[in-house]
Structure formats: structure tokens, C-alpha cells
Design brief:
Elements (H helix, E strand, L loop, with lengths): L2 E7 L3 E9 L5 E10 L6 H4 L4 H20 L2 E8 L1 H5 L3 H12 L3 E3 L2 H16 L7 E6 L4 E6 L5 E7 L3 H8 L7 H15 L10 E5 L1 H10 L7 H4 L3 E3 H13 L2 H5 L12 H14 L4 E4 L4 H10 L7
Parallel strand pairs: 1-4, 4-5, 6-9, 9-11
Antiparallel strand pairs: 1-2, 2-3, 6-7, 7-8, 10-11
Length: 311
């Protein structure tokens, strides 16, 4: 069966997916990997990608592209999101990626990012949704909300410039964060999310990306991380509230040692958890389902699925 690969270069992490396309048109994963490189460190303040963030990301991108080729990928699609969109020197990163990894990185819009994340969720959750799907994609630099119907049509999408890395850099000035730090983040999120339209009745909310999957892994002590155990899980609003209190109150070194925690994500996970909790509150929902399959899966279908024009 033909193999294809996608690489999702985010503000906080880089994710690789190599998958086979079955004769029926489905994709089955052959290899999945993720590395936290923090491409977007400092972008909120400087509007530039740092040399350290670029070097760490380029090294992983080079490694992932080589691995995809060794596994027989006939095509590699690479997307970059919030940090690369915001940075004045984003073109420098794209040129270096082409030179070092031999790949063309597409800086996708927040709108396309939302559509790809929704497509990935729709493929896995539409059959169990009694009504509309509501997808929440929390990244390092931005957060996307997408409302769509069970047939797969997107009715509303919006990308907000709030993410786990961006909010940590902007508001957190101590370890652990103070009550004042937390209150400022909560107030900013409430003000940001107040423009969201109410979700349609009976909506099923599904969260994607590393913040949501990490929170579920920590809540249930899943260590080492097991995608099959995480995917399809549920985080209730009450569980989230207790988890936020715990994470905001622990110093960084203690957060790093929690079962289920990725140590490199521990510094930004309190802000990420606050985004999820405030989103659930803003939408008046009681729980959030968890998806381990995000943008990289949507990009795979978009570029290499049935009807795609790219090779």
C-alpha cells in the first residue's frame, strides 16, 4: 500500500505521521512521533523566531523527513502554524527547512488549520455524535474553535491568538504562578471567548493537540503515553477544574514528575489547562472528549486522500 507522511510544525512541538493508504481510501498509521522544540519561544514579544527555536525545530524536521523517506513515504506534506505566521523572519525558517530537510513548508492560515483539525475529528467522532461537532484545537500560539455538522460541513471557525506558550510568556511571572497571574489569564480568556456564538444544542466537544491529550494522560496517570488509551477519552468540567488548581499550584519541578506529563510541556501546561477550562465554561458545556488525532491527520487526507490534487 502507498505510504505518505505529514509533519505538523507548531509553536510548541513538531509531529510526524507516516501512514499507509488502504485500497478503500482509509489511512493507517505506520509511525507517529512528537518532539517539543518551542519554535515559538519569544515570538509574542519579539515577532521573530529565535535562533534557538529555529535550530531545535530544523534539527527535528530534518530527522523526521529522513525517517519518513526511509519508511517509503511517496510524499511529505509539511505545515507550519501560529509561530511561523506571526514571525517577521518566517521566510528564513522556510528557506532553511528546504535546504536542510528537503521539504517545502506551507504556512497555513488559521482558517485552514481549523478546517483540517475538524476533518480529523469528524473522521473519528461523527458516527457517535448525536448532534453537531465542536472542535477545540489548543496550540502553543493560538486556539481554534470549529463548529460543524455531522455531515462534515464547517459552520463556524475562528482562530484566537491565545495559546499555552503565548499566555505563559505574557502573564506568568513566578513559579508556581501567583493567584494574580492566574486571575489575569482567566480574565483575558473570558474577554477573548465572549465573542463565541453559543454552540448548537446537543454539540459534542472534542479537544485535539498536546495540551488536551497531556491533561488526560495526567488525570489518568498514563505513563508511558499510550495514544490508544488517550484517544476517545473524556475530561469532565469538574475534573478539569481540580486539575487546573493542582497544576497552577505546583512548582515546575514537581509538575515535571507527574505521571503522564511530558517534562518539556510542564512549564506551559497550567496556561494550556486554563484555556481548556475557560473554553468549556464559555460554551456552557460539561465535558470535553479527547482526540489524539489532530491537524496532521486532517492534512494527510487533504493532501493525499481520495480526490486530493497533490501527489
Amino acid at each position: 500500500m502507498p505510504r505518505f507522511a505529514t509533519i505538523d510544525v507548531g509553536t510548541n512541538s513538531v509531529l510526524l505521521l507516516v501512514a499507509e493508504r488502504t485500497p478503500e481510501g482509509r489511512f493507517e498509521a505506520v509511525r507517529e512521533r512528537a518532539e517539543i522544540t518551542r519554535l515559538g519561544r519569544g515570538v509574542d514579544a519579539t515577532r521573530r523566531l529565535s535562533p534557538e527555536g529555529m535550530e531545535a525545530t530544523l534539527a527535528v524536521l530534518e530527522d523526521f523527513a529522513r525517517e519518513a523517506r526511509e519508511l517509503g513515504a511517496q510524499g511529505i506534506a509539511v505545515s507550519a502554524t501560529s509561530a511561523a505566521r506571526d514571525a517577521q523572519n518566517g521566510a528564513e525558517f522556510l528557506e532553511a527547512a528546504k535546504a536542510r530537510a528537503g521539504v517545502t513548508v506551507e504556512i497555513i492560515s488559521g482558517q485552514l488549520e481549523a478546517e483540517l483539525s475538524f476533518a480529523a475529528v469528524h473522521a473519528d467522532f461523527a458516527s457517535e455524535a448525536a448532534g453537531p461537532l465542536l472542535v477545540l484545537d489548543i496550540g502553543g500560539g493560538s486556539t481554534e474553535f470549529i463548529y460543524g455538522n455531522p455531515a462534515g460541513h464547517v459552520d463556524f471557525r475562528h482562530s484566537f491568538d491565545v495559546g499555552a506558550v503565548r499566555l505563559t510568556e505574557r502573564f506568568v511571572a513566578s513559579d508556581p504562578m501567583t493567584a494574580e497571574n492566574r486571575a489575569r489569564i482567566e480574565a483575558h480568556l473570558r474577554d477573548t471567548f465572549k465573542t463565541l456564538p453559543p454552540p448548537p444544542p446537543g454539540s459534542l466537544m472534542v479537544g485535539v493537540a498536546g495540551t488536551v491529550t497531556t491533561l488526560y494522560a495526567v488525570q489518568h496517570g498514563i505513563d508511558p503515553y499510550d495514544a490508544e488509551e488517550v484517544h476517545g477519552g473524556t475530561l469532565s468540567r469538574s475534573e478539569l477544574a481540580a486539575l487546573v488548581d493542582k497544576l497552577c499550584g505546583l512548582p515546575l519541578e514537581e509538575r515535571r514528575t507527574l505521571r503522564g506529563m511530558q517534562p518539556k510541556r510542564a512549564d506551559v501546561i497550567p496556561a494550556g489547562a486554563l484555556i481548556l477550562l475557560e473554553a468549556v465554561k464559555a460554551l456552557g458545556l460539561d465535558a470535553c472528549r479527547v482526540s489524539d488525532r489532530g491537524l496532521r491527520w486532517g492534512l494527510l487526507a487533504h493532501r493525499f486522500g481520495a480526490g486530493a490534487t497533490s501527489p
